[in-house]
Amino acid sequence: MSGDAANAGVRGAMGVGGMREGRVGGEERRRLVVERLRAAKSPVRGSDLAAEQGVSRQVIVQDIALLRSAGVNVASTNRGYVLVEGGVPAACRRTFKVRHGEDRMADELRLVVDLGGTVEDVVVNHRTYGRVRAPLGIGSRRDIDRFVRDLATSKSAPISRITSGYHFHHVTAPSEEILDEIEDALGSGGYLVERMPYEMGEDL
User: Fold this and answer.
1) Known binding-site positions for Ni(2+)
2) Is the same domain home to 128 and 186?
3) How many CB atoms neighbour CB 121 within 10 A?
4) Which residues are annotated as a binding site?
5) What residues contact residue 122 under an 8 Å CB cut-off, 6+ apart?
6) Range of the structural domain that residue 191 is part of
7) What are the Cα distances from residue 153, in Å, to 43, 49, 126, 147?
8) Which of 112, 134, 161, 189 lies most in the core, judged by the most C-beta atoms within 10 Å?
9) Burial of 96 (0-12, 13-18, 19+ CB in 10 A)
């Protein structure tokens, strides 16, 4: 969403709900919230927005809902709110090569989503079968639980089994800072591995 579109969304949210709590009226407060998110370099916590505007966190939650209903794209992460203009920027997407046993699959995914990332897919690069990709769209612990449950009930194996646990994930996040934190967490957890020479420079 462009800046003009976001501003139009703020105007669309004006006068809805009749909230007058805090130092300014609801319309002005929502405009200030959008400007605050636009200027932020990282996610902004709801409690911080509430303190800045002199309102309760619940009022901010209602403001965000009103902004979204008016077409303003405000994303929620575990670290706070982010204003997404024009979709997730291409720069805020990173490819990670990882390896782990099937018993650590859920833990690896939790490291990503708990920091505010979304695991878009899983890719294996097999020398005989070629490249195999499966979309995931995992952005929360609930998604992880559902994914693990579906694997168990379908009696299917993760596709990384054919590459001895080696696989890739494309991960998106609201900022490069979050992707850096995810990379550090995956490295500290022993999941990250280096690409093979024949994988270097490949657009997976």
Assistant:
1) 100, 108, 167, 169
2) yes
3) 16
4) 100, 108, 167, 169
5) 133, 134, 136, 158, 159, 160, 167, 168, 169
6) 92-199
7) 37, 43, 26, 10
8) 112
9) buried
With 0.85 as the threshold, say if the pTM is over it: no
Asked if 116 contacts 70 with a C-beta cutoff of 8 angstroms, the reply is no
CA distance 58 to 64: 10
Using CA atoms, how far apart are residues 100 and 66, in angstroms rounded to an integer?
42
Same domain, 145 and 167: yes
- Averaged pLDDT for residues 106-126: 91
CATH of residue 121 = 3.30.1340.20
Judgement on whether residues 109 and 76 belong to the same structural domain of the protein:
no
The pairing of strands 166-172 and 93-99 is antiparallel
Q: Please tell me the predicted confidence (pLDDT) of residue 144.
A: 93
Q: Once rounded to an integer, what is the mean pLDDT over residues 24-34?
A: 91
